[in-house]
Amino acid sequence: MRRDVFQAIADPVRRDIIGLLANESLTVTHVSENFEISRPAISKHIKILKECGIIRIHKKGREHYCEILPKNLLPVSDWIEQYRQLWEDKLDSFGSYLLKLQTKNKDNE
Q1: What is the DSSP code (8-state) at residue 69?
Q2: How high is the pLDDT of residue 106?
Q3: Residue 66: CB partners within 8 Å, gap ≥ 6?
Q4: Which residues of 56-82 are buried (b: 16+ CB within 10 A; e: fewer)?
């Protein structure tokens, strides 16, 4: 099955794993200690993240470490960026509307 970065971020547990690994490499055991789901379930999420190219696993002694590959998250950033201006415009418009309401209410007092 072909996986992509959007599949990786589709699940909240995987997003949380990405967040954990953003600061440091962790063993699979240390990753799983941060969740209230089973270690096999965490291993499945890690496998999907690896297949999507978001993390890599490397072995040090007997431990398997997960390491983030941040450049592979760029497609998500690029996709979101195309909508940033749209949302900024909408928020600016909403802010202007609220300001008009405040002014109108003050004038009616």
Answers
A1: -
A2: 75
A3: 17, 21, 25, 26, 27, 28, 31, 46, 49, 55, 56, 57
A4: eeeeeeeeebbebeeebbeeeeeeeee
Read off φ and ψ for residue 10, nearest 5 degrees. Answer: -70, -25
Residue with tokens 């297949």: 51
Question: Taking the chain (109 residues) in consecutive chunks of 10 residues, what is each chunk's mean pLDDT?
Answer: 82 95 94 94 95 93 93 88 84 85 78
Its pTM stands at: 0.75
d(CA 4, CA 108): 56
Report the distance separating Cα 61 and Cα 69, nearest Å.
22
